[in-house]
Amino acid sequence: MQKKKIIRIAFYDDGDIYIVPLNYGYINNNGKYSFYFHGAKAGRKYELAKNTPTVGFEIDGNYELLEADIACNFSAKFQSVIGTGILSLVEDKNEKIKGLNTLMKQTAARPEWSYDEAKLNCVAVFKLDVEKMSCKAK
Known about the structure:
about 140 residues; alpha+beta; seven-stranded antiparallel beta sheet
């Protein structure tokens, strides 16, 4: 997970499934994982996070097709992480900064950043607390 850049969050939206790819950062606190990502304080993702907080997620990578002479013998190498969790909006300023720094460490490999107060106030920071997670590699 530490080398991947994109997490896909799956929301249930009154009969529809809505999947959003996002940059993320994560924290492992004694085996309890939390993912952070950000976005606008408006729109479908924001409203679903407030109203339908149970979500699914997926991270994948290192895909390589393994060819064969027979179509049914093709296979692939891959790594994947899938799970479910509860999404919340981070309101506390210090936790917002922690979440954004976690995201930036994952994205840009630098763990400490400064944030303008006005920008902090207009950005939504989301926290996904993992309830179930499984990993697979082939």
